[in-house]
Design brief:
Order of helices and strands: EEEHEHEHEHEHEHEHHEHHH
Number of strands: 10
CATH superfamily: NADP-dependent oxidoreductase domain
Radius of gyration: 18 Å
Strand order of the largest sheet: 3-4-5-6-7-8-9-10
Number of domains: 1
CATH class: Alpha Beta
CATH topology: TIM Barrel
Distance between the termini: 33 Å
Strand content: 15-25%
Amino acid sequence: MQSIKLNNGITIPILGFGTYQITDPAQAEQAVLDAIQAGYRHIDTAQSYMNEEAVGKGIAKSGVPRRELFITTKVWVENVSYEKAKSSVQRSLDRLGLDYLDLLLLHQPYNDVYGAWHALEELQEEGKVRAIGISNFAVDRAVDLAEFNKVTPQVNQIEINPFQQQTDAIAALREEGIAVEAWAPFAEGKNDIFQNKVLTEIGNQYKKSVAQVIVRWLVEQEVVVLTKSVNPDRMAQNIDVFDFALTDEDKQKIAELNIGESQFFSHADPQMIKWMAGRKMNV
């Protein structure tokens, strides 16, 4: 598996298995087990996904040594403060059945980000977390966090897909030494992405699916990619992207698909911030 070196020397597998919206405990446990058996060594969850315990059970059942796995979770908005971040991360570790995390992210750019970041820095110093980062932070917020604190975020996990390519953000984050990780690479099926003519025609050239073309497009940009499926065959397909390469012509065609706006919502929308502030999950 290809990997990327983060700014603190830790390496992260470039392909990860995401568990968003897999809320049924039995299904989540089995999905993680199937993903690890398919070859994934990078598993991504979050406090707000409400499946950390099931994810932990899948990890334990896999029998793969802990040192061979890269596990990520994220601190939800209501826990974004110094004290709450620290206590909630311990609860996450307990639910996952782990002694440490490979990557810990602040899930959203809201609440007491500075206080929570100081907690993450301390958790990293204590060895509870190997790498720390952020999710859904605009470039200016990421730079602000980096410039006024001891630790520059190792990762920023943001929405990237053919309709929201984030080319400028990727370049700017890299300039700061922050690795980029893509959530929703398939745009959760929006705009009929799996039937998209351009992506289908590119895939047909290599006998690959639209999903494989998208994953390969991101891998070639050295962007960490999170894919999700509860189907073992699709899990295996999504990781089978290292036996072909896109041409410059392919990449130009994909570039022309860019709409340049989120396929979901804007993190700068005041109503969205208010909604998240009121979403108490007790995690």
